[in-house]
Automatic annotation (TrEMBL), chain A:
Residues 602-651 are annotated as: Disordered. Pfam families: NatA_aux_su. GO terms for cellular component: NatA complex. Residues 602-611 have a biased composition (Basic and acidic residues). Keywords: Receptor, Repeat, TPR repeat. This is NMDA receptor-regulated protein 1-domain-containing protein. InterPro entries: NatA_aux_su, TPR-like_helical_dom_sf. It comes from the Eukaryota.
TrEMBL record, chain B:
GO terms for cellular component: NatA complex. It comes from the Eukaryota. SUPFAM superfamilies: Acyl-CoA N-acyltransferases (Nat) (SSF55729). Transmembrane segments: none annotated. Keywords: Acyltransferase, Transferase. It comes from Kockovaella imperatae. The keyword Coiled coil does not apply. Belongs to the acetyltransferase family. ARD1 subfamily. PROSITE patterns: GNAT (PS51186). This is Putative ard1 family protein. Residues 1-152 form the N-acetyltransferase domain. One of its GO terms (molecular function) is protein-N-terminal-glutamate acetyltransferase activity. InterPro entries: Acyl_CoA_acyltransferase (IPR016181), Ard1-like (IPR045047), GNAT_dom (IPR000182). Coiled coil: none annotated.
Amino acid sequence: MSNIPKHRQLPDKENRLFKELLTQYEYKQYKKGLKAADTILKKFPNHGETIALKALTLHSSLPFPMTVAGLTKQEEAESLARLAVKKDITSHITWHVLGILAKTRKDWDEATRAFAMARKQDSENIPLMRDSIALYLHTRQFSQAVAARHQHLLLRPTLRSSWTSLIIAHHLNGDMTEGIEVYDQYLGIVKNDGATSSEKAQLLMHIITMCMEAGQWDDALRRLENGLKDGVLSTRGQVTQLKAEILMQLGRESESEDVWRALIEQNPDNLSYYDGFLRTKGYEIRKSVTLDSTSKIVSLLNSFAESYPKALAPRRMCLDIARGDEFRDLARAYLVNGLEKAIPSLFVDVKGLYVDLERMKIVGEIVEDLIQTLEKDAGLHDDDSKAPPTALLWAYYFLALHLAHPAHPNPSYDRSLQLLSTALKHTPTLPEIYMAEAMVRKRAGDILGAAKAMEEARLLDGQDRFLNCKAAKYWLRVGEVAKAEELTAMFTKKDIATSQDLTDLQCLWFLQEEGDSYRANGNLGMALKRYQSLATTFQDYEDDQYDFHTYCLRRMTFSAYYSLMKYEDQLRSHPAYFKASLAAINIYTRLHDDPSLKEEKLTAEEEAERKKAAKKAQKAEQKARKAAAATGEGKKEDQPVPDEDPQGSKLLKTETPLDEALKLWKPLELLASSRIETWTTGYQIYIRKKLYLAAFKCLLQAHDIDPRDPNLHWEIIHFKQTVSAVPDLAEPVKMTTDQLLPSLIPSDADLAAYNANLLSQHSSSPAHILGAAKGLSELDTTRPIPSSSLQAIESTLSRLAAHDVPPSVAIMSSALKLMKELGAPISSIDSLRDTYKSRVPLASVFESDEELKRRRREALEGEEVANGVKPDL
Amino acid sequence: MDIRQATIDDFLGMQNANLLNLPENYTFKYYLYHALTWPELSYVAVDPRGRIVGYILAKMEEEPTDEPSGHVTSISVLRPYRRLGLANRLMKQSQEAMVAHYNAAQITLHVRKSNRAAISLYRDSLGFEVHVMEKGYYADGEDAYGMRFLFKRKDEESKAST
Ligand SMILES: CC(C)(COP(=O)(O)OP(=O)(O)OC[C@H]1O[C@@H](n2cnc3c(N)ncnc32)[C@H](O)[C@@H]1OP(=O)(O)O)[C@@H](O)C(=O)NCCC(=O)NCCS
């Protein structure tokens, strides 16, 4: 007792109270606890550990969901915790509390530091140690985790988890051999560890993968076979797959072949099993297949198709392999089977082949031919059997989607629509046909018509959430946020806004699409709000792993845990994060260029609508408050904390848009470095920050990926023009660019020729045509841009409608936007729009604003009529 | 369409498919809970571009029961990929895994009374039977059928074959 420092000692009475306080906290008697703390503090206001426990008690009593009053208490708890450490810096309690609070705030770094400090004061405190280890793992400080695990093992050598956790810590630290050694020691020491058989299996499986990772194939195989022999492992699934792979590595192909066969027997629809099997025969089908081996592979696959007549995979894989006439025969049989069985998913199944245009062409020819036969009412087989009547319907449907597929060199939307309307005459109530129509119209640029068609599909099967989501998405694509939310609300919680529920449920597609919709409508605040919610969702996904650092050790699911750690490390390479970040960064750079965008410019109409919505919200709130008052929860401070930024205006008004952009971009730099947009977007941020070297590095990275990328192209010109106009360019920048810029763009090149060159080399690529036009706009830096340059740009852009250029509605729209940005006269914008319209007559985006408004009203009103007979949900 | 055991990086795709198909949704952590407790039981159907078009999210009953019992938390297939036999295959793979790895004696699930497609899949294709009706089981008040399928025990099987 004597080594308790003076400032921590309490007289008996207070000491008793302090002990009570600890118990009260443990039993969740927070009110009593707070009272006890206050009694002690009245006499000893500087007693750090009491302050800490008060902070902890207060913090634990916070309401959930957080209320206004709760927020103040939370702040109080936080500042008490900090004060406590100041008052007693050598107490494990004060640090521990600080750590716990930081942990609930998800400030992992601060929590890790605080727990480490706490452990310093009390190095044998096991619970403290466990939390601390979890934090080391969470913050990827693996060598510290290993050290702490060693200490844990010394203190608790008979505990199973002391050993197993050390193994996994070694593994995460990259030291497989050490981990495996610990495992073997453990087997010798802890005889009866009480693990269930599936837990034993999980551990052994993980050890085997560690051996494999360390390249110890023989050892891996020995352990695996012993595990099977002892009945610890089951032959089903992964174990057997590991065995097949190990045998391959050991060069024992024919044994491996048998094992792959056994796997195919277990699951004849697993593609990697066939890949593995074929590898034992020397075929790497995901890499390349030589012409003379295709027939051999096809016949191997066919024998599986015969052994497993119900399996889809071997037949479908044949189509990926076969070529020429063999392909034609197999594809025909495959299509006939699908059409006769009336499988709606036949097209989505087959379209995977369209990465190869030759195969795509053959499929198209076959289906045209089948339709001709079916229209003549003839059978599809050599005998005189007849095809079922639905076969023709599904053949029309197939061909319609085929003709509108984005890979199709000559899409023919009109014909697609004709085919679908014929199909509709057969079966007017099939949602699939309307879905297909929506798809075709979308591709043709008629997004309004597409939304209407998807809505028709939805109305035919109101119970199906998939159709509901699709219809909502299509409404969002035409900017009808309210209509879309009306639909999504049919499947979300009734007591909160549908957008809130979908945010809580981490519905990424909705956040992205609604953000895009707001962005297209010019409501940049709400767009940012949705994109930022999506980014926050990824933060939540990252934080989610925390509990599993301890949970998995208990459940002994080590392999799954190990892959979770690896997965979380590259979480933000996910395409959803990528897409939302780029969209938000685009807004932030625009805000930087034109701060006036931060002030909303509403038309009178929008203003009125906004007011109406605000009134409605206010009424709803009042109603909710009244209801709450009735149940006695009416006090304002007991209300849940309201959304601080319901309209996204705080986000919009940021003083530092480029820093916000950079925050979103940083993970991409690390995790999406192979995507060229990462770099072309990074350039946009850095050049505005006038960080010329960083901007230049982005260009170099992009150039490594694709030197002819159309965005990179004009950015290079932009960069050259920008740095040459900077009077006092820093010496290192000058040196680097002088040295390296010539590798991107010939230094003495006539820039105009450089630009013309891109166009002539990619004369039928829409993206390159736009890139070249942008290049022209960068070549002439005078603003307003002289009409001679503008004319050149316009004539380049008009090529987008040329007949040898596949029509791209999206790029045409960007072209019109570019013209607007450059301040082109209305007349020339209109004439360009007309040119586009005649190339893609269905594209609703090229209608005049009035016409668009009229059609939109019509579409929605049509809906209201239709909604009169809304199907029950 | 590839049918394989789900790995960690499939669960976001699963969450996406679930949000598109069904009104019963879960945050990601609940998916992780499945993935990190019974890694062998969840399966996915994947299209050639790697997109998850169907999934089964499955677990073992945590409450101690007489015999280990598997449970389907969620199963669905994106509409354009339905009627291809994917749900059927996903279910069978998961069932086999329940028996092989957890010695399951049965598998249970809930289904809306009005969900004809799903009921037909479970009852007609897979041999499940309704063992209980739960009134107002779903958030919107709809009733659920509790359905169940008893696995044949290995020893019974071998008895039957001798
Ligand atoms: C239920 C669902 C999962 C079925 O998926 P699926 O991959 O299309 O099903 P399968 O192709 O494997 O069908 C197997 C069998 O189920 C039955 N079945 C499936 N869909 C059916 C439907 N719409 N109507 C009648 N029976 C149907 C059939 O017996 C079918 O065999 P068959 O095609 O040889 O006639 C799918 O419709 C779906 O995702 N629906 C929305 C989500 C949902 O309801 N999930 C179930 C929650 S409990």
